[in-house]
Amino acid sequence: MAQLDTRQKLAILADAAKYDASCASSGTSKRDSRGGKGVGSSEGMGICHAYAPDGRCISLLKILLTNSCIFDCAYCINRKSSNVRRARFTAQEVVQLTLAFYKRNYIEGLFLSSGIIRSSNYTMEQLVEVARSLREDHDFRGYIHLKTIPDADPELVRQAGLHADRVSINVELPTVAGLTDLAPEKSAPQIEGAMSDMKGAIEEGKDNKKRFKSAPSFAPAGQSTQMIVGADAATDRDIVRRASGLYDRFGLRRVYYSAFSPIPDASAVLPLKRPPLMREHRLYQSDWLMRFYGFKPAEVEQAADPAGMLPLDIDPKLAWALKFRDSFPVDVNRAPKELLLRIPGLGTKAVDRIVQSRRWRKLSLDDVARVTVSVAKVRPFIVTTDWRPTLLTDRADLRTLVAPRTEQLELFAA
Fold first, then answer.
1. How many CB atoms sit inside 10 A of residue 400's CB?
2. Tell me, what CATH number does 135's domain have?
3. Which one, 101, 113, 182, 338, has the greatest CB density within 10 A?
4. Which domain holds residue 144?
5. How many CB atoms within 10 Å of residue 334?
6. What values do phi and psi take at 2, rounded to 5?
7. Needs which cofactor (predicted)?
């Protein structure tokens, strides 16, 4: 096999990492290198797809340590039986790449995952060594996200939490049946056990930090996970239920959804084409309803059709409102915030502005229009000083009136 140089390895391993969606960095602690000490920052202006503690978009070097793997998960392009070009970084190569990219202002942090080589413990040791060297040898103060391995030694996983801002363990698939069929070498109880241990370690770290100022931070940005959508027979209702359980049991910061993408030489048990990307988007919207809008999982599930799938043409909040029209219209001048958050077309910021504004005066339909993108979507569900929907809320064709209109874009339109 020809020896690969660093640029060739980077091309292979950065491309292999693109299937992992869980690389946002929101929630980490603020660090910088002002005062002439340390290298890096978790706050600086960046160019890619992650978020700093103050909400700004920052960039991450997102790579695999290696795309070789001893496992043969049917849905994974890096599985043992896959005919792909393989590459592998050493721990020090990743360290030097991270520092070099940072000093050229390309990145603000590192997202590192890996296939399993030799054994879970050996691979976890290499991942931890990258983070340890960056923190201790080079005083790197940027963001680090490490993917941990469920069956690795708990002490190695603990060390990952001491050096990384966020750690994550992928549940892979929404159902145990799906995991058994497509990744028989992985164990759902083992994955959940590792997530439970991580939750306990994070809580212990927070408690130690409160009691002792000198206590080290432990995964200050928490833990996250990712599940693949569309590779098995799981419905959207199954996925919403699973995500809710993960949030409740393991205190996750985020659950990420990744639409299954067909891979070369795929197994016959996999679907021939990927699910609609809109399905992934609707699942993220349902996730937001549970996390920020006060919807219970059972209520989000009610937005699904009898087959358990969320509609693709309208968002789940609107789908819920159309099913439960007796909850509307809502008086924007008198209703509590909890009810305002259920109005289709009003986001959390719009609701906050409404609550703040109505302290000083009564709001009209024009006032509501100023805080939303489409007042036409909102009108059937609200009451203002100068507007009442009367029979509009009960119209049989209401869905047609409020659903987004699809139109063919013109290539050379002005």
1. 9
2. 3.20.20.70
3. 113
4. 6-275
5. 10
6. -65, 140
7. [4Fe-4S] cluster
